[in-house]
Structure formats: C-alpha cells, structure tokens
C-alpha cells in the first residue's frame, strides 16, 4: 500500500485586499505555442493535484490520497472547501459528487488528458462519501497523479462550472493578469499578482535587462540565441524536456508517398551536426520519438556512414541522386535558431540528391502555415506536458496522421493496458519501432527550454519536465 501524502497547501477563498504582500511578478513568454495560456490556467484553476516547484505532485483540492493494494484504484480525500457564495451568504460545500461528475464536463479541452488518465469511460470516477473521490481508471496508469495535475482536468461541478483556483484570471489587453484570492501568500499563490505576456525574443530580453520583467520563459528554441547573446550570465537557465524535435511529414505531399523516400530521410537526417551548429551542450541528437526508450535495434542503430549508404541505396531505387536531385520544401518557425538548423539539415541531405527549399514562417504564423499544407516537411518541437511515453506516441496513431501503423496502434493499446512502468516501456518501444518502419515523423533532437530568472526571484527550480508553476515563484523580500 502506498503511503498517505499529507497536504502541502489549502486553497482559501478569501476576498482580495488592498495590501500586496508577495509583490508582483511580470513574466514574458517567448514562443508560438500555448505556454502562456497554460500557465495562466494552472494558476487560476483548482485541481485535485498540483505541481510543486520541482515538477513533483503536491496536494491541491485533494489533501491526501492513497492507492489500493493492487495500485490500480486511487482514493482521494477532499479539503473542506465551499463554492463562492452570493454576497455574505456562503456557498455550498464542495463535495465528491461535484468532482466525479465534473470530470465528464471537461469537454474537448480535457479529452486527451482524460484518455491518458484512463478516465474517459463512465464509472471510472465515483463519490462513495461526501469528501472522498474514488478513481478506477480503465486502463490504469502509473502516471494518474501527474494527469490529475493538468489544468484540463480542473475541478468542476456537474454543469461544468470551474471551482476557483488560487488566482483570479483576467485578460489584460493581449496578456493574462492573475490576482491572488487570499490576502496573504500561500504555497501556490506567493505573488500578489502575476502578469503573463507573449512577446518576441528581442523585446523579452530587453525588458528583462531593464528590470521590467523578472522572468522570461522560452517555450522552445525560439529566442535562445538572443538570450545567450544578452550576456545575462547566471540568469540564463537551460533544461532538456521530454519530447522530440523533428520533421513532420505532410501526408498530402505527393513526393513523400513513397515509403522508401521517407525511410531514406529517417536514415540520412542526422541531428548531431544540427546540435553542433547551435553549440549548445544540452541540445543532443535523438533518433527516437521518445528519449527514454531503449536504443533502437533497427537500421537507426547503425553508424552514420552505414545509415547514409542505406539511404542512398533507397533513393537510387526511386531515381534520386546527385545527378537527379529531388526538391522538397521545408517549413520552419521564425527565428535564427530554426534557420540555422534548417541550413545544417539541408547541407547534410544535399550530397544524397535531396534539395531543401526552406520556407521561413512569419512570426506567429507557423501553425497557420503548417495547417495550409503547402510544405512537404515541417520542423516542429513536440514537448510532452507529462512524462508519459504512451500519451506522447498516441499522436501518431492511425486516424491522427498518415502514414500510420496499425501494428503500432495495437502495441500502444498493450502499453496503455499495463499499470507497470517496465511493461509499458517495453510495449512502447515496440510501438515506436513499428512507427519508424513507415515514418510519418523524422526524430532529430531532444527539446530544450530556456529561461531568464532575476536574482531576486525564489521558487524557480529546474526540473525534468521544464514545468514552473508561477504561483510558487515570488521575489524575495517583496
């Protein structure tokens, strides 16, 4: 039986006051993904489980929990909390039935997290007594607590109304503004207010140097060059995070319908020169869709020269070579980092007879350009929110991408069905190998995130997920 985990916080629903113990935190986010909104949701929504500064799970609305003897079912005890009332009249008590029924009201936003947590089916969430929630996921997952910390699975009532989190969320022009509910700092609400704005790298680095923002978070590689060039010394923090940087193949591209061409790209595209181009020790080659898997046992395990020879032979079979080159278009996000990676990749493939025409997306326009389907390939960063290899590989299931592998789908079903990390890992490794037999994605590098952290901040802690709950960050003595 797993031990009880005692509470690290209590969510208090007191009104805001005029005092500002804890000070204000101004945050700039660099990148084109959803990180700014995710951070705002994480601070403003109440979840059964929350994240600590190191990415670990800590108590949220659930003050304690335990797994039953077989490790499949989870029992959570709720804190004595109430819904907001009207005027001076207190609201109703938050009860387990709210939580159990509310999970089914997370809609499209929570669909992927519910599936990964094994809570999509009816009857997987129950309320045996008023302040106890019982979860019986189907299939069970050893990462259930991690998924319960996701804002997509925030506590709701049976109508889908969100239970208030530590901060009140407001829009502030194009930014997010968070105001702490409690008069005094709490573990998950240290700063009195937080402002989160998505800005370009140059503006973010400049604002940090002037002291206008205390924290800059890079969502990926974008802006890293500017941050390094700014000479901020110890302020610059780097982290490798789970996921993959690589080439997404456009299934609508007639040029890439031949599996031999896709296999040739998989064997010939080498992440090592790309990592060297950016001269960043933490940016390492990755020839798997997930770095935590065992080394591949297929042709990817061969030395680089042997892989290139195999790629050249495949290309010759379809009439491609230095004398008969093939031109492919490659879409990359805006920014010199991606331009440098694309140029290095192009130089790597050119001797084999593959010419890359690099298309640089407009700032903020990469997602739209990719959806248009105009390019044959796209250089993308796929970062996992939870270190769940099965959920990560699910994005390449049939019905989501083409080409795909029915065999890989079956192996992923096997991986998801086991509540044992070792068995899940073995089945996931087999699924990944099946996906690489007819690839829809070419892995190249392991993702990296960066941050600029002001000296006066406390609570920022590098971790394996690259997750930094803003409510746990504040300025010392502010």
What is the subunit arrangement here? Answer: single chain
Question: Can you count the beta strands?
Answer: 20
Radius of gyration: 24 Å
Helical fraction: 25-40%
Mind describing the biggest β-sheet?
A: 7 strands, mixed
Provide structural commentary.
- With 478 residues, this protein is an alpha+beta fold.
- It is built from 14 helices and 20 strands.
- It has helices at residues 35-44, 96-102, 107-117, 144-148, 201-209, 224-229, 259-268, 271-278, 304-317, 336-349, 366-372, 389-393, 406-416, 421-437, and strands at residues 24-30, 49-51, 57-59, 62-67, 74-78, 125-129, 132-135, 167-172, 175-180, 193-198, 215-218, 236-240, 243-249, 326-332, 354-360, 377-383, 441-445, 448-453, 457-458, 474-475.
- It has a seven-stranded mixed β-sheet with strand order 8-9-10-1-11-18-12, with helices on both faces. A five-stranded mixed β-sheet has the order 15-14-16-13-17, sandwiched between helices.
- Helix 7 (259-268) packs antiparallel against helix 9 (304-317) and helix 8 packs antiparallel against helix 10 (336-349).
- The longest helix has 17 residues, at 421-437.
- The protein starts with 23 loop residues before the first strand and ends with a strand.
- Mean pLDDT is 92; it is low at 1-19.
Brief summary:
With 478 residues, this protein is of the alpha+beta class. The protein is built from 14 helices and 20 strands. Helix 7 runs antiparallel to helix 9, helix 8 packs antiparallel against helix 10 and helix 13 runs antiparallel to helix 14.
């Amino acid at each position: 039986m797993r031990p009880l985990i005692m509470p690290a916080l209590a969510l208090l629903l007191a009104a805001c006051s005029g005092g500002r113990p804890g000070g204000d935190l101004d945050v700039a986010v660099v990148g084109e993904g959803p990180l700014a909104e995710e951070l705002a949701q994480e601070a403003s929504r109440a979840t059964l489980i929350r994240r600590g500064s190191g990415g670990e799970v800590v108590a949220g609305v659930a003050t304690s929990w335990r797994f039953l003897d077989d490790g499949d079912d989870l029992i959570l005890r709720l804190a004595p909390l109430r819904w907001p009332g009207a005027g001076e009249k207190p609201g109703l008590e938050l009860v387990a039935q709210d939580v159990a029924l509310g999970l089914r009201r997370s809609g499209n936003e929570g669909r992927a997290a519910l599936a990964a947590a094994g809570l999509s089916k009816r009857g997987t969430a129950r309320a045996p007594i008023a302040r106890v929630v019982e979860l019986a996921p189907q299939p069970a997952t050893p990462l259930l607590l991690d998924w319960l910390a996701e804002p997509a699975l925030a506590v709701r009532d049976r109508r889908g109304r969100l239970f208030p989190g530590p901060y009140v969320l407001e829009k502030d022009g194009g930014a997010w503004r968070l105001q702490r509910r409690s008069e005094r700092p709490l573990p998950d609400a240290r700063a009195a207010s937080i402002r989160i704005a998505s800005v370009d790298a140059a503006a973010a680095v400049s604002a940090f140097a002037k002291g206008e923002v205390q924290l800059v978070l890079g969502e990926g590689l974008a802006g890293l060059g500017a941050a390094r060039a700014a000479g901020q010394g110890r302020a610059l923090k780097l982290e490798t995070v789970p996921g993959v940087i690589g080439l997404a193949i456009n299934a609508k591209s007639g040029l890439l319908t031949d599996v031999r061409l896709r296999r040739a790209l998989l064997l010939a595209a080498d992440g090592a020169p790309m990592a060297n181009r950016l001269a960043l020790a933490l940016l390492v080659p990755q020839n798997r869709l997930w770095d935590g898997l065992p080394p591949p046992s297929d042709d990817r395990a061969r030395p680089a020269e042997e892989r290139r020879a195999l790629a050249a032979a495949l290309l010759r079979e379809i009439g491609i070579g230095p004398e008969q080159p093939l031109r492919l278009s490659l879409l990359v996000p805006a920014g010199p980092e991606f331009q440098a990676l694309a140029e290095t990749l192009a130089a790597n493939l050119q001797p084999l007879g593959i010419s890359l025409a690099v298309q640089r997306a407009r700032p903020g326009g990469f997602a739209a350009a990719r959806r248009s389907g105009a390019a044959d390939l796209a250089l993308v960063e796929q970062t996992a929110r939870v270190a769940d290899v099965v959920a990560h590989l699910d994005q390449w299931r049939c019905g989501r991408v083409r080409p795909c592998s029915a065999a890989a789908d079956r192996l992923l079903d096997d991986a998801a069905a086991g509540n044992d990390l070792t068995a899940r890992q073995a089945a996931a490794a087999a699924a990944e190998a099946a996906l690489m037999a007819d690839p829809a994605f070419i892995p190249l590098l392991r993702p990296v995130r960066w941050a600029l952290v002001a000296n006066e901040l406390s609570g920022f802690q590098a971790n394996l997920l690259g997750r930094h709950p803003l409510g746990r960050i504040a300025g010392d003595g502010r």
